[in-house]
Structures are given as C-alpha cells and as structure tokens.
Amino acid sequence: MRVLVPSALQSYTGANWVEAEGATLGEVLADLDRRYPGIRFRMIDERDRPRPHVRFFHRKEAVHDLAAALAPGEELLIVQALSGG
Amino acid sequence: MTSKAAARSLILVATRKGAWIYQGDGARRTWRTDGPHFLGHIVSHLVLDPRDDRTLLAAAKTGHLGPTIFRSTDLGRTWKEAARPPAFGPAANGLEARAVDHTFWLAPGHASEHGVWYAGTSPQGLFRSEDGGVTWDPASAIHDDPKYRGWMGTVQDGTPDGPKLHSILIDPRDPKHLYIGMSGGGVHESHDGGRTFAPLVAGMQVVEGFDPADVTFHDPHCVRYCPSNPDRLYQQNHCGLYRLDRPGTTWVRIGGGIPKEVGDVGFPMVVHPRDADRAWVFPMDASSVWPRTSPDGKPAVYGTRDAGATWQRMDLGLPASDAWWTVKRQAMTADAGDPVGLYFGTTSGELWMSDDEGGHWREIARHLPEIYAVETAQVG
User: Fold this and answer.
1) Using a CB-CB distance cutoff of 8 angstroms, which residues of chain B are in contact with residue A85?
2) Does the pLDDT of residue B72 top 70, yes or no?
3) Is ipTM strictly over 0.90?
4) What is the CATH number that goes with domain A2-80?
5) How many CB contacts within 8 angstroms connect chain A with chain B?
6) CA distance to partner chain B, nearest, from residue A76 (Å)
7) What's the average model confidence in pLDDT over A7-16?
8) C-alpha–C-alpha distance, residues B83 and B92, integer Å
C-alpha cells in the first residue's frame, strides 16, 4: 500500500510517499523498517507502543493498535502531531 | 606543554536544536565553526572516542521521534544511525515495562576495551555497546531489580526533563569498576562492569524533611573523578558540593567556602586533569523556587586548589551583572592542555572558554540554542 511519510522521517525514505506491504499496521511498519532500517523505532517504542506525538490514519480513521487490520490498496498516513518548541 | 597541547583542539557542543563542532588551532586562540549537525534534533551529548580520535557518537531525538544514536567515523563529515539504539528489554520481575525517552550520557569504555561504550538514559538505564556504538544492549541488572526501580522513582520524581542516569565513570585501572549517578536515585558503584551496583551515598544530605538513609531521595547532579587519582571523586549534588576519597565510603561536604549568597549548588563538576586538588564548579541560584540562574544575575565559576577547603571566584571577562543564564551538568569541561583550558556552554546559547585555568574568560560563540553538553578533545 501507499504510505505517506512525514517530513521528520523522510531522511530515512527520501520521499514523502513510499510503498510497504502488510495486512496490519504492525506488518506494514515492519516492512517499512526492512526497507528503511531504523524508521520503526523512531515511531514505536520497545513496548510496541506508538510514541507520544506519532499518529497513524487509515481510511480517515486513527489507528492506535499494531494488530489493527488495514484494507489492501488503501493508504496509510503517518502524521507527526505538532509539539515542542 | 603536554604532548597533545599542540594538536588540533575540538569543542563538541550539543544543544536543544542540534550539534556544533568548533575546530581550534593548537593554541586554542581561533575557532572554526562546523555545524549545525542534526539541526532541530535534541542532542543531549556529543562525544569523541579518545581511543581512535575519529569516532563521534551523538545522542539525539526530536520533539516527535523516538531516541537514537548517530555515529560518525570521520569526525563528523558523515553520520550513520545506530542499527540498534538503546532500548529496554521486556517487563520482568512484575515491574512495569519502560521505554527509553532519550539517551542522556555517552561514555567511551576503558582504554583496553576498543569499541566499548556505555550510555545512560532517561528514564534511568545503563546500556553497553561493544561495536563502537552500532548496536546497544541493556547492561545492568538494576533495570529489573525491584529495589533499584524503587530508588529510581517515577518520571514525576525526576528532573524537569526526565529522570536520568549520568556520570558514568570507568576506572582507568580496572574496566570492571564503574560509578554511576542517578537523578534521582543516588551514586552507585559496580565491580562487575555494570551488571550489579551498590549504593555509595553515605554522608550526603537530602532535601530537608526526608530520610538520607533512603537512596531514592539522593540527587547527584554530576560526579567526576580525577584522571590523575581515580580514587578521588568530586560531586555536585542537589544539596551541595562533596568529595569522596576511596576506599572511604562517606562523602564530605566541601562547599562551605563558597559565599552563602552564592551557595554551593549547581549542576556541572569539573576536575583538573593532572592535579587532584583542583576543581571548578558553576554555582546557580537554588533558593525558593529554584530559579536555576546565576546568583543575582552575576555568573561566576568557582575554583579550588586545595580539594575544596577554599574556593576562589573566577569571573574576569564574564558579564558583571544582568546575566540570567546558567550551565547544565554536561555543559562544562576541561581539556588536557597546559595551562588547562576550561569551557562552558550556557542555557542562553553562549560558549565560553578560559585558556588560563579560569583566570580569564572569553566568548567563542553566541546565539546558539540552549546548550546541553560541552566536551573537548585534542586530535592529531
């Protein structure tokens, strides 16, 4: 599926839209990490929890659970919430 | 002059918005700016490996992204991210699982252990790399020790930007002999390379009304040993300045010689590279709500030549008034030159140095982001 990568993570991908495969959010993020090593840990901590200012959207809905199923052919949007100063 | 004094000098500056490297001549008179590196990243520490004089590690995160370690093997010309940054293991012993918020402190390992590094994190954790910082693993049983986890407290017990493990000191005579500081959680000593620790807090005060016998209330800000005598430790603590001469185990308060209106509370602690009786500190206003500014807006370094019995104010060249900055715990250091060069970076983004052991100060850079850490090195 197509994945929209926020600017803060484009140092890994070199592009704002990339391709990744997987039936769940966790699988797509794992595939992203295979293609762009290190990118997953910047978004997901060692407890498998999304980091505080990272959000995932799929079919206009927020997705919080790595086990959540993603619809084939749809897009995954990764968003960095505005924070910090 | 020492053998390294004629070499090229480096000042490694980590800030809230990136890192800068200042490259100086052998005389430490002129400095060329190299940076920013990682602009916008929160860089807690930037450290050169003294065993090869070319490997740099930077502890970084951003406001959005999780923590990582960047690594350069060409003195900062190119950088590559660690393949496996510090991360806690799964929950154990019925304790809640933790996640590294940021790596705070980086320490090259013993001279005999090429490629070994230690990292201290927030929340408190000790990590070790054996491949020059490419991969990191939890290094200590204290992570999953209920007693230690109790002493570490929660995020609410820690310093404003998170509880930290810092002051990782490796005995130059014994790679298995380590000291660490935890804010909060006290000073601890290991004889097995950091796997296990025991508290070393006797003699230190804690905040009024609390029990000094409870390790959790101890808050070391910065601990350093003397390179010329690793059995002498100096400590800037939340409750004053202390010294410990091993094998003794009781810290002695040594800040009484600093005027009361200035006080002996601050964050950094710097020790002379060759004279164990000489050290420098940067007192701050720790009254009432803890402004964490220079006392009365008049910044000054205080130095001792007699192991803390007396202290001299050293402020020539620094603003005489109306300067409301201070210096964080990693943001003051000494080089190995003769005379020793002293360096500090301020919370308002100024980089200062003295090339006469604190006698006179001059500004090297201004208008940087808030400075978190300053390290120095001499390279060939």
Assistant:
1) 63
2) yes
3) no
4) 3.10.20.30
5) 51
6) 18
7) 94
8) 25
